[in-house]
Amino acid sequence: MSREKTDISPSESSLAPMHCTRVKEPLGPPFLTELGTGTPVWVVQRHEDVRQLLTDPRLNRAHLYAPGAPALTLYPNLLDNPAILNNLDGPEHRRLRRTVGRAFTPRALARWRPWISSVVDDLIDRLIESDRPTDLVDGFVRSLPIAVFSRLMDLDDLDRERLAYWGDHAFATTAFAPQEVQKAMEDFINFGIGLVAQRRAEPGEDLVSSLIQAADEDGEVTELHIVSLVILLVMAGHEVSTTVFGNTMVYLLTDGRDTWHELGKNEAVVPAAVDQLLRGIAISDRDVLPGFLRRAVEDVEIGGVLIPAGSVVAADTVMANLDPEVYPEDWRAEPFTPPATPHLAFGAGPHYCLGAWLAKMEMELALHRLPKRLPGLKLAVAPEAIDWRRGLLTRSPQTLPVTW
C-alpha cells in the first residue's frame, strides 16, 4: 500500500503549530493506506475530489457502521454511535436535520448574537482579572463554546462544568483510558435523557425545548433521536470551537501579530479573516483518522481512480483547503480577503456542519473583542513548549499560557 507524501516541511516537527501545515507540490489522486486498526482506506485530498466525496450519495456514513463493517478506531468515542445524526443518511438524516434547522434559524442566530457578545466580554473580564500568566485555553478557548451552549440550553454552573468534562472525553484518543471515555459518554447520555424529559415536562425558551417542539411538529422524530441531537450539537460544538479557536490563537500570537492587531482595530474585516483562518489553519495531523470517513455503497470513480464498493474513504479537508490548484495564493498573503472558492472546513453536502454559523459567530465576536481589549496579549511560553491535545480528527493546545 502506498503512503501519502509529506506535507510538513522537514524542519518542522510533527508537533509544530497547526498553521505550519504546507502543501509542497500539487496534490495527487486518491491513494490507498491503512487506518490504525489495519483497515484499508482510500485518502482523497484534491479540493474537487473531496467535494465530490462529501456530496456523492454513493459514499455515505451509515454503511460505516453496518453489520460486519471494518473497525475504524482503536478508541471508544462519540462517533461510534450509529444512532447519532452524523452517522445517518437518507430520509431519516434529512428529517433530523430539518428538526435542528428549525431551531438554528437565521432569526434565532441574530437574536443570539448580543448575548454571545456579552459572554465573550464576560470571559475577557475574568481573563483580565486573573493572575498572570494565565491559561487562555481554560479561561477562554475552552470556556466560550461551553458557556454558549450552557446558556442556549439554560443550564446552571454545575452542568457547565460537567459539559466541559464530557466534551473533553467525547473525541479523545489516548488522553483517557477507554473505560473512562465509555463511562463519560454513558453519563452524558443519561444526562441528555433526563434533560429532554425535564424540558418536555417544563418547556422553556431554550434550545432543547425548541428541538422538542420541532420534533413534535415533524411527528416522526423519536425521543432517543432528540437526545442524540443534543449530545452531538454540544460535543461537536465543543470540539470544533476549541480546536479551531485554539490553533487560531497560536497563529495570531506568534506569526500573525499584524493580523491580530488589525482584527482588534477594524471589525469590518473580521468575517473575511475568519474564513481565511478556517481555510488555512489545519485542525489535525491526520495521524489517527486521515479525514472525514465515508463508505462506498457501490463502485465510484473519484479523480480518475475507481473506488470499489465497500471501501472506506477519507475526505482530507485539511489538504483540500490548501490545494494550490484552487488556492494559488498563501492564505496569509491576503488575510482580509475572503477565499475565492468556498472552503471545506465545515464539510459539504448533506453532512455540512449544522453548527457552522454558530461557530463562525463565536469566532467573529471573539477575534474582534479579544484583540481590541487585550492588544498586548502574548504567549508566555515558546511555541515549541506548547502542550498539545489530540483527538480523533483534531490537534489543539491543551494549555496556552499567556500574559500581556
Automatic annotation (TrEMBL):
Keywords: Heme, Iron, Metal-binding, Monooxygenase, Oxidoreductase
Regions that span the bilayer: none
Source organism, top-level taxon: Bacteria
Pfam families: p450 (PF00067)
Gene Ontology molecular function: heme binding; iron ion binding; monooxygenase activity; oxidoreductase activity, acting on paired donors, with incorporation or reduction of molecular oxygen
Family designation: Belongs to the cytochrome P450 family.
Protein name from the UniProt record: Cytochrome P450
UniProt source species: Streptomyces capitiformicae
